Amino acid sequence: MPLRDNYRLDRMLIETPHPRPTLREARQASEALLKRAALLAPADRALVELAVGSSASQRQLATVLRMDAGTVTRRLKRLLGRLYDPLVLSLLDPRNPLPPEYRQLGVEHLLQGLSGRQLADRHQMPVSQVHRILSQIRGWHSARNGHRD
Protein backbone atom coordinates (compact mmCIF):
# COMPACT_ATOMS: atom_id res chain seq x y z
CA MET A 1 0.00 0.00 0.00
CA PRO A 2 1.53 3.36 -0.98
CA LEU A 3 2.24 5.75 1.87
CA ARG A 4 -0.02 8.45 0.39
CA ASP A 5 -2.97 6.06 0.21
CA ASN A 6 -4.28 6.14 3.78
CA TYR A 7 -7.94 5.66 2.88
CA ARG A 8 -7.82 1.88 3.38
CA LEU A 9 -6.00 2.21 6.69
CA ASP A 10 -8.44 4.88 7.88
CA ARG A 11 -11.43 2.70 6.95
CA MET A 12 -9.92 -0.28 8.74
CA LEU A 13 -9.42 1.75 11.93
CA ILE A 14 -12.95 3.14 11.80
CA GLU A 15 -14.55 -0.24 11.13
CA THR A 16 -12.70 -2.07 13.93
CA PRO A 17 -13.02 0.10 17.02
CA HIS A 18 -11.09 -0.91 20.09
CA PRO A 19 -13.45 -2.33 22.71
CA ARG A 20 -13.53 -0.37 25.93
CA PRO A 21 -12.70 -2.42 29.01
CA THR A 22 -15.54 -3.19 31.34
CA LEU A 23 -15.50 -1.74 34.83
CA ARG A 24 -14.53 -5.16 36.18
CA GLU A 25 -11.62 -5.48 33.72
CA ALA A 26 -10.43 -1.98 34.57
CA ARG A 27 -10.61 -2.76 38.30
CA GLN A 28 -8.66 -6.01 37.81
CA ALA A 29 -6.00 -4.18 35.81
CA SER A 30 -5.68 -1.56 38.55
CA GLU A 31 -5.38 -4.26 41.22
CA ALA A 32 -2.67 -6.05 39.23
CA LEU A 33 -0.80 -2.78 38.76
CA LEU A 34 -0.98 -2.02 42.50
CA LYS A 35 0.34 -5.51 43.32
CA ARG A 36 3.36 -4.83 41.13
CA ALA A 37 3.68 -1.32 42.59
CA ALA A 38 3.97 -2.87 46.06
CA LEU A 39 7.45 -4.02 44.99
CA LEU A 40 8.64 -0.47 44.28
CA ALA A 41 10.63 1.72 46.65
CA PRO A 42 8.31 3.39 49.21
CA ALA A 43 8.30 6.88 47.63
CA ASP A 44 7.66 5.46 44.16
CA ARG A 45 4.97 3.12 45.46
CA ALA A 46 3.18 6.02 47.20
CA LEU A 47 3.13 8.06 43.98
CA VAL A 48 1.69 5.19 41.92
CA GLU A 49 -0.88 4.37 44.60
CA LEU A 50 -2.00 8.00 44.73
CA ALA A 51 -2.23 8.24 40.95
CA VAL A 52 -4.14 4.97 40.55
CA GLY A 53 -6.25 5.15 43.69
CA SER A 54 -7.49 8.71 43.34
CA SER A 55 -9.25 10.52 40.56
CA ALA A 56 -6.90 13.46 41.01
CA SER A 57 -5.13 14.94 38.03
CA GLN A 58 -1.36 15.00 37.88
CA ARG A 59 -1.47 18.74 38.59
CA GLN A 60 -3.52 18.05 41.73
CA LEU A 61 -1.10 15.30 42.75
CA ALA A 62 1.78 17.73 42.27
CA THR A 63 0.11 20.21 44.60
CA VAL A 64 -0.47 17.56 47.28
CA LEU A 65 3.09 16.22 46.95
CA ARG A 66 4.59 19.73 46.73
CA MET A 67 6.28 18.93 43.43
CA ASP A 68 6.32 20.44 39.99
CA ALA A 69 3.59 18.98 37.74
CA GLY A 70 6.19 18.09 35.13
CA THR A 71 8.17 16.15 37.72
CA VAL A 72 5.08 14.15 38.70
CA THR A 73 4.35 13.42 35.04
CA ARG A 74 7.91 12.28 34.30
CA ARG A 75 8.13 10.12 37.42
CA LEU A 76 4.79 8.45 36.71
CA LYS A 77 5.75 7.80 33.10
CA ARG A 78 9.06 6.25 34.20
CA LEU A 79 7.41 4.17 36.94
CA LEU A 80 4.60 2.93 34.70
CA GLY A 81 7.20 2.01 32.09
CA ARG A 82 8.89 -0.16 34.70
CA LEU A 83 5.63 -1.68 35.92
CA TYR A 84 4.53 -2.62 32.40
CA ASP A 85 7.98 -3.76 31.23
CA PRO A 86 7.50 -7.19 29.56
CA LEU A 87 10.56 -8.54 31.38
CA VAL A 88 9.12 -7.49 34.76
CA LEU A 89 5.78 -9.06 33.86
CA SER A 90 7.60 -12.27 32.91
CA LEU A 91 9.58 -12.31 36.16
CA LEU A 92 6.40 -11.91 38.21
CA ASP A 93 4.50 -14.61 36.30
CA PRO A 94 4.00 -17.57 38.67
CA ARG A 95 4.77 -19.96 35.80
CA ASN A 96 8.23 -18.46 35.32
CA PRO A 97 10.80 -21.31 35.35
CA LEU A 98 13.73 -19.21 36.63
CA PRO A 99 14.98 -19.84 40.16
CA PRO A 100 13.33 -17.59 42.77
CA GLU A 101 16.69 -15.94 43.56
CA TYR A 102 17.10 -14.90 39.92
CA ARG A 103 13.58 -13.54 39.80
CA GLN A 104 14.11 -11.57 43.00
CA LEU A 105 17.35 -10.02 41.74
CA GLY A 106 15.68 -9.12 38.45
CA VAL A 107 12.71 -7.48 40.16
CA GLU A 108 14.92 -5.55 42.58
CA HIS A 109 17.06 -4.33 39.70
CA LEU A 110 14.25 -3.49 37.28
CA LEU A 111 11.55 -2.20 39.64
CA GLN A 112 13.56 -0.72 42.49
CA GLY A 113 16.41 0.47 40.32
CA LEU A 114 19.11 -1.13 42.48
CA SER A 115 22.54 -1.28 40.90
CA GLY A 116 24.69 -4.38 40.64
CA ARG A 117 26.79 -3.17 43.59
CA GLN A 118 23.70 -2.53 45.74
CA LEU A 119 22.31 -5.96 44.90
CA ALA A 120 25.66 -7.61 45.66
CA ASP A 121 25.82 -5.90 49.05
CA ARG A 122 22.20 -6.69 49.88
CA HIS A 123 22.52 -10.38 48.97
CA GLN A 124 26.15 -10.85 50.03
CA MET A 125 27.44 -12.06 46.68
CA PRO A 126 30.12 -10.88 44.26
CA VAL A 127 29.13 -8.15 41.82
CA SER A 128 30.27 -10.37 38.95
CA GLN A 129 27.73 -13.01 39.99
CA VAL A 130 24.94 -10.40 40.10
CA HIS A 131 25.85 -9.20 36.61
CA ARG A 132 25.97 -12.78 35.34
CA ILE A 133 22.51 -13.51 36.76
CA LEU A 134 21.03 -10.32 35.30
CA SER A 135 22.57 -11.21 31.94
CA GLN A 136 21.09 -14.71 32.12
CA ILE A 137 17.66 -13.23 32.91
CA ARG A 138 17.84 -10.96 29.86
CA GLY A 139 19.03 -13.85 27.70
CA TRP A 140 16.22 -16.09 28.92
CA HIS A 141 13.65 -13.40 28.21
CA SER A 142 15.04 -12.68 24.73
CA ALA A 143 15.08 -16.38 23.85
CA ARG A 144 11.59 -16.86 25.24
CA ASN A 145 10.23 -14.06 23.08
CA GLY A 146 12.19 -14.94 19.96
CA HIS A 147 14.38 -11.82 20.02
CA ARG A 148 17.89 -11.80 18.69
CA ASP A 149 20.47 -9.70 20.50
What does this structure look like?
The protein has helices at 7-15, 23-37, 42-53, 58-65, 69-83, 86-92, 100-110, 116-123, 127-144. The chain contains nine helices and no strands. It has two domains: 24-83, Arc Repressor Mutant, subunit A (Orthogonal Bundle); 86-144, Arc Repressor Mutant, subunit A (Orthogonal Bundle), CATH 1.10.10. It has 149 residues and is mainly alpha-helical. The mean pLDDT is 85. Helix 7 packs across helix 9.
Question: Concise description?
Answer:
The protein is mainly alpha-helical and 149 residues long. It has helices at 7-15, 23-37, 42-53, 58-65, 69-83, 86-92, 100-110, 116-123, 127-144.
